[in-house]
Automatic annotation (TrEMBL), chains A, B:
Similarity comment text for this entry: Belongs to the inositol phosphokinase (IPK) family.
Pfam families: IPK (PF03770)
Reactions listed under catalytic activity: 1D-myo-inositol 1,3,4,6-tetrakisphosphate + ATP = 1D-myo-inositol 1,3,4,5,6-pentakisphosphate + ADP + H(+); 1D-myo-inositol 1,4,5-trisphosphate + 2 ATP = 1D-myo-inositol 1,3,4,5,6-pentakisphosphate + 2 ADP + 2 H(+)
Role noted for this protein: Inositol phosphate kinase with a broad substrate specificity.
GO molecular function: ATP binding; inositol tetrakisphosphate kinase activity; inositol-1,4,5-trisphosphate 3-kinase activity
Record InterPro entries: IPK, IPK_sf
Keyword Membrane tagged: no
GO annotations of cellular component type: cytoplasm; nucleus
Protein name: Inositol polyphosphate multikinase
A Gene Ontology biological process term: inositol phosphate biosynthetic process
Entry EC no(s): 2.7.1.140, 2.7.1.151
Species assigned in the record: Panicum virgatum (Blackwell switchgrass)
Region described as Disordered: spans on this chain: 22-48
Key words, A-Z: ATP-binding, Kinase, Nucleotide-binding, Transferase
Length: 324, 324
């Protein structure tokens, strides 16, 4: 949306996307053998975006740790690819940040799909961020009060602004785009997209509480708040590490990107640690160059999310309720 | 703009503005005697907003430390008064924050003015934030990528958004609304409002450098950066204290408010401290209730301003250039 040039991320000191590709291939192990159509399936835990089907492109996983995201139509797909290529090789991105908070990028690949079996479509090959979680509880949270890059054309701004005002984005600096919570018995709570769009402040708070409740029904007990949100390696400590980077980084502005939260409902323990808590950034079709300015829009939303989550940790029972 | 009710700031646990007034009068010393029209004059150092004249209302000072701000037309004036009344008495505002970063509110007063000598107009009576500075160098920086409260009506949003996109607000999270720099010899640099509106990122950086330069011409030397921006009690340390409060406070959202910077160009020393550096919040006609959510919009812009200023401090000469 913000540039028609594939050289968008041709930063000073960073080679162009075309060169990045050869750079990438020179320094990384060769990509794994191409999966066949029968290896691939829509991810079970997908909570936002289009789901792959007979008539729609959507993300696919191969069950061995890779995630295939179809390049989006128009400039968006190329834009997201250019971001991944520039970001993967950018000398000013701390390796710890790249490894901890971003999916690893393995290039692009043409894949036949159920929707278009004879017309292979380019896919970004990324790490499957939820690989290894047996019962993934997932939340997709779109960050920022503003979801449109400043240089966007007027009709796009108007369209985004209407969504940002109609959801909690403008008010809270973020909105919940998707959520899936697995209860200990295996029951899944997964509200409809429309229900999420209509959430107000109290509703967002309720969803973020149910995300860490052992029985994710209406009466959220927040029994997992300490294990998932709090403590060492929990969501809060990861978000605070990300915040420290956003207070300094002036490379990229992450318009309309999401923070993906994940943990393993089977492994998490109400009494302490475990559960493979993950905090990752995803969806980079609208990233803009930072040009020496911090991403105050993402940072503000991130701080707001941190406040919501730290309030839940403070209010949660210090010792979880006894099992019945 | 966001409420037609004078009870806007009728927070839980806080009495209504009407009650606040009596609370205020009970606990504060009685206001000083009313100034006469001849005591009052437009502040010499005013850098933003309308200047009081024969045909316009504008702020006035009395030379003894008070600043009189005419209540704005429509709801804005009443809204700003309601904010000051609620804020002055709010038990959850730390006294240190109120005293360090906000003008003290002394109630309202009907004053005859040059513009309307026979029709006294209500004025907010506030501390003159720049009292005591012999040669005030001043900057007015409007904070936030979004300057309209979320509940504003459509035409107001469109009007603000056009300004926010046309200036640096959306891109940087703030814009410079006014600046006045006094050189050691007394010469004043005070760019026109239109010039400030047209600033791009590089221009904002240049203005923030010239603000701390001993010769505020084009060749900014940033000789005062360490004294004014850096060090103990400098702008940066004050902004960081403010930031810590904004990471926690969920009482108010300060849409379209400004940070006012001030120092005494006669007293500041390029070699160290001094200069009475001031960092204050002003302009509260569009403050909204926080309702338990942090002001991510103000916080993001504040963090962006902090990054700009800390970059200038890092780049400035550690030892100032020798005097010629």
């Amino acid at each position: 949306m913000i540039s028609r040039s594939p050289d968008l991320f041709n930063f000073r000191g960073v080679v162009s996307p075309r060169h990045l590709r050869s750079f990438h291939h020179r320094h990384h192990p060769p990509p794994p053998p191409a999966p066949t159509m029968s290896d691939l399936r829509p991810p079970e835990h997908q909570v936002a975006g289009h789901r792959a089907s007979a008539d729609k492109l959507g993300p696919l996983v191969d069950g061995s740790g890779l995630f295939y995201k179809p390049l989006q139509a128009g400039d968006r797909g190329e834009h997201e690819r250019a971001f991944y290529e520039a970001f993967s090789a950018h000398a000013a991105v701390p390796p710890r940040i790249r490894d901890a908070f971003f999916p690893r990028f393995h290039g692009t690949r043409l894949l036949p799909t159920q929707a278009r079996p004879r017309d292979p479509h380019p896919h970004l090959v990324l790490d499957d961020l939820l690989a290894g979680l047996r019962a993934p509880s997932v939340a997709d949270i779109k960050i920022g009060a503003i979801t449109w890059p400043p240089s966007s054309p007027e009709p796009y701004v108007a369209k985004c602004l209407a969504k940002d005002r109609g959801t909690t984005s403008v008010l809270l600096g973020f909105r919940v785009s998707g959520v899936r919570v697995v209860a200990p018995g295996g029951a899944v709570w997964r509200p409809e997209r429309q229900e999420l769009k209509e959430l107000d402040t109290a509703g967002v708070r309720r969803v973020l509480r149910r995300y860490v409740s052992s029985a994710p029904g209406e009466g959220a007990d927040c029994a997992l708040a300490a294990a998932v949100y709090g403590g060492e390696g929990g969501v809060l400590s990861q978000l605070r590490e990300l915040k420290a980077w956003f207070e300094e980084q002036t490379l990229f502005h992450f318009y309309s990107a999401s923070i993906l939260l994940g943990y393993d409902a089977n492994a998490v323990s109400a009494t302490g640690v475990g559960g493979g808590v993950r905090v990752k950034l995803v969806d980079f079709a609208h990233v803009a160059e930072g040009d020496g300015v911090i991403d105050h829009n993402f940072l503000g939303g991130l701080c707001s999310l941190i406040k919501f989550i730290s309030d839940i940790v403070s209010e949660a029972p210090e010792t979880p309720p006894l099992a019945p």
